[in-house]
């Protein structure tokens, strides 16, 4: 069995011991706009409010830029619940969240055609 901080409130035989909606106190909408590719990073500021164990694990994952999707996978929680938790951490100043940076250059058509050709050869 993994260390408790790696898998909060999980049991190998029983699975999750607390329902996901309980983790977010029944909330389904984050106060911060986040998507699965938003990058989250710890600020080094200790939260002044009491946070649950999932909040603490999520914060521990954010030493470097970490996507919301990665945090959800580590916590084994649905994305919407993870967004609420990350939003809580943003609200208390423990993390910052930024949308992913996409280049303003449109995708190269020849690259897309080469990928499509490669996929067709695999079929």
From TrEMBL:
Name this protein carries in UniProt: DUF742 domain-containing protein
Q: Extract the InterPro entries matched here.
A: DUF742
> Which species does this protein come from?
Streptomyces yanii
Q: What is the lineage of its organism?
A: Bacteria, Bacillati, Actinomycetota, Actinomycetes, Kitasatosporales
Q: Taxonomically, which superkingdom?
A: Bacteria
One Pfam match? DUF742
């Amino acid at each position: 069995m993994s260390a408790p901080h790696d898998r909060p409130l999980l049991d190998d035989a029983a699975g999750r011991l607390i329902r996901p909606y309980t983790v977010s106190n029944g909330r389904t909408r984050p106060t911060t706009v986040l998507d699965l590719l938003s990058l989250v990073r710890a600020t080094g500021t200790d939260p002044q409010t009491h946070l649950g164990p999932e909040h603490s694990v999520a914060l521990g994952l954010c030493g470097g830029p970490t996507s919301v999707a990665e945090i959800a996978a580590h916590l084994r929680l649905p994305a919407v619940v993870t967004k609420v938790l990350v939003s809580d951490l943003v609200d208390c100043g423990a993390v910052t969240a930024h949308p992913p940076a996409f280049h303003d250059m449109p995708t190269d058509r020849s690259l897309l055609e080469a990928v499509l050709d490669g996929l067709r050869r695999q079929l």
